[in-house]
Amino acid sequence: MHRSTDLPYADPDADWSLPGWLYTDAEYFELECARVIRPSWQIVCHESDLAGPGAWRTLSYLGEQLVAVRGADGVIRGFHNVCRHRAMRLVEGASGCARKLVCPYHAWVYELDGRLSGVPMKSDYPALRLEENGLASVEVEIWRGFVFVRLEDDGGPSVATMMAPYDAEVAPYRFEDMRRLSDVRERERRVNWKNVGDNYSDNLHIPVAHDGLTRLFGKSYAIEAADWVDRMSGELVDRPSSDPWERFYQTHLPRVDHLPEANQRRWLYYKLWPNMAFDIYADQIDFMQWLPLTPTTSLLREMSFALPDQRREMRLVRYANWRINRTVNAEDTWLIERVQEGMASSSYTAGPIGASEVCLRSFAAKIRERIPEARQHRAPPPGWSRRVRQA
User: Fold this and answer.
1) Are 362 and 228 in contact, with CB atoms under 8 Å apart?
2) What's residue 387's pLDDT?
3) What is the dihedral of CA 60, 61, 64, 70, to 10 degrees?
4) pLDDT score at 329
5) Of 3, 27, 10, 303, which is closest to residue 183 (Cα–Cα)?
6) Could you point out which of 13, 169, 201, 219 has its C-alpha 20 to 30 Å from the C-alpha of 232?
7) Sorting pLDDT into bands at 50, 70 and 90, what band is 5?
């Protein structure tokens, strides 16, 4: 099944994929980061990771260091992890807890709500106004227990708005009550960030490149594209797989009482614009985002969450899930690294895109709407992005 909602604009290039130069060009990469990534929401953690006052988690991307911290009033706020004095990083590492944020360089002190409250030798700074030098804030949204931040607001939709078409389907999974199964895993990949997302939403490669998923789903794999979210799904077949871990998962997946009957043996995948995804199973959920590093490299950031469940069969099934998806991830890595190499070939411009490839069509349309130069099948002459920025 393939379904697409009507996009808010028509794309005259809808029958063509994004051209290869968008996956390698340095000028385009800088413009895309500014127009696509900086205004987009990025997940930091689950709010249970910030359980008490002073608990903090960090996120770094596009050269920005961010920290989400729970205040003494219980509110979760986001800030640039940068002292207002000499730009020193305030907290180091992925997580921690502090009563106050104290700069390790010159001991400037910030409250958990970002206010600057202490400066050694304060009288030595004629221009200093404490009330004007609190931490620079970033916007925070909490959607179903997950904490998101964004660097800039360009009027784009909230996470809740993006996920609204599927909110009723997600609700029974009780995301808010979930807890982390494992800490953040980060893996660098030699691919442009878009290649990760394109592959995630690509339906046609499943029966060709993923034998395991084909054994598990049969012919049930389906995709659809809403305005801001791609939805993929597969129904576990009853026929026992020839692979031991797949067969174990099929056989021993325990019932989850709070889920509807239709969701007991369904695998769901949601890709949120532009670079985040939830893999949702009856036993757990996995979160992934792919952050751009350079035109040809990206960072995969992954987390797993689940409801507390001490059943032995649930623990074993979650391990089997990991074994299955470790193979899928290895297959996808092999694919996208070779696609990335092909994108750099002088022989490749843009490829025709199938009518059934509704998710790729939806993503490409939004990229072209934000950066019209992405419609060109060949890269413009050097310096083109400077002229675009000045226009």
Assistant:
1) no
2) 76
3) -40
4) 97
5) 303
6) 13
7) very low
User: For 270, phi and psi rounded to 5 degrees?
Assistant: -120, 125
pTM, two decimals, is: 0.94
The closest alpha carbon to 67, from 133, 145, 117, 137, belongs to 137
Report the Cα 148 to chain-centroid distance in Å: 10
User: Around 164, how many Cα atoms within 13 Å sit in the side-chain half-sphere?
Assistant: 7
Element (H, E) at 283: none
User: Alpha-carbon torsion 70, 74, 78, 79, what sign?
Assistant: negative
Tell me the C-alpha distance between 355 and 290, whole Å.
Answer: 26
Distance CA 252, CA 323 (A): 15
The alpha carbons of the chain give a radius of gyration, in whole angstroms, of 23
Report helix, strand and coil shares of the chain as percent, to nearest 5: 35, 25, 40
> How far is the first Cα of the chain from the last one, in angstroms, to the nearest whole number?
43
CB 36 within 8 A of CB 292: no
Contacts of 228 (CB under 8 A, 6+ apart): 157, 161, 162, 272, 273
pLDDT digits (tens, 9 = 90+) for 73-98: 999 999 999 999 999 999 999 999 99
Contacts of 220 (CB under 8 A, 6+ apart): 233, 234, 235, 237
Res 10: pLDDT: 76
pLDDT band at 9 (very low <50, low <70, confident <90, very high): low
| Two structure tokens written together for 198 | 């394109």
* Contacting residues for 208 by C-beta, under 8 A, at least 6 apart: none
Mean pLDDT of 55-78: 98
Q: In what order do the strands lie in the sheet with 55-61?
A: 42-46, 146-150, 137-143, 76-80, 64-70, 55-61, 95-97
**Residue holding tokens 């021993």?**
252
**Distance in angstroms (rounded) separating the CA atoms of residues 322 and 337:** 22
pLDDT band at residue 3 using 50, 70 and 90 as cut-offs: low
Classify residue 181 by burial, with Cβ atoms within 10 Å: 0-12, 13-18, 19+: middle
* pLDDT tens by residue, 209-234: 999 999 999 999 999 999 999 999 99
Task: Provide the pLDDT for residue 388.
Answer: 76
Q: How far apart are CA 269 and CA 267, in angstroms?
A: 7
